Structures are given as C-alpha cells and as structure tokens.
Amino acid sequence: MAAAGPSLEQVAAIGDGPMKETPAKAKSRAPEAVVVDADLCKACGICITLCPTDVFDRDDFGRPVVARLADCTLCAFCERHCPDFAIDIVRVGDNA
Asked: Which candidate, 88, 84, 89, places its Cα nearest to that of 39?
C-alpha cells in the first residue's frame, strides 16, 4: 500500500522560517497577471497556503482569486506547486 502524500499543513511548513522583508524594488517585478483556470482548479488551497505575500483570497467555491496582485513577488510557489496546473503567472514581456 503506497503511503499518502503530505498533508496541506506539512506542505505549508516547507516555507516556514524567517522571511526577509520584501525590498521595495521587488514591487516593480509584479506580474501582469496571475491567472487561475477555474475549470482545472479543485480548490485544494495549496497556492493560498504557500503564498508568502498573501496574494490570494477564496471565492464562494473555495477557489483562489487574486486579491493583491501588486504584492506578488514572482516567487512562483503557486504556479510550481499547483497539482492541477491551474495557475499561470503572466510576466511582463512574456510573449503569448
């Protein structure tokens, strides 16, 4: 029998530790958009829990919504850890 994966609390603990204050110049690196594909998102909350700058809120269905885009530092924790690949960070200068 395969062992179950880590709990949401265990995943969140990965990022625990002293956080340095975000430099003011990092604000200028804010993305053009953080897109959450509602059709792919299963509302697991990993992105909300891992976001070090609290960019997301939850909608009525528990899915993440971008509430504070200017606070995004492009760490891409949300994009990299989304098990459903439902998050896309659109960076300034990205060619679609």
From this structure: 84
Radius of gyration from C-alpha coordinates of the chain = 14
Range of the domain at 74: 26-90
* Cα separations in angstroms, 94 against 31, 66, 88: 10, 19, 12
What is this structure's pTM?
Answer: 0.65
On whether residue 68 sits in a domain, the answer given is: yes
Whether 1 maps to a domain, the answer reads no
Cα distances (angstroms) measured from residue 81 to each of 8, 9, 57, 91: 11, 14, 17, 18
| Per-residue pLDDT tens over the stretch 79-91 | 999 999 999 999 8
Distance CA 66, CA 35 (A): 8
Q: Tell me, what DSSP letter sits at residue 58?
A: E
Give the domain CATH number at 45: 3.30.70.20
In tens, the pLDDT along 5-54 reads 556 565 555 454 444 444 444 445 668 999 999 999 999 999 999 999 99
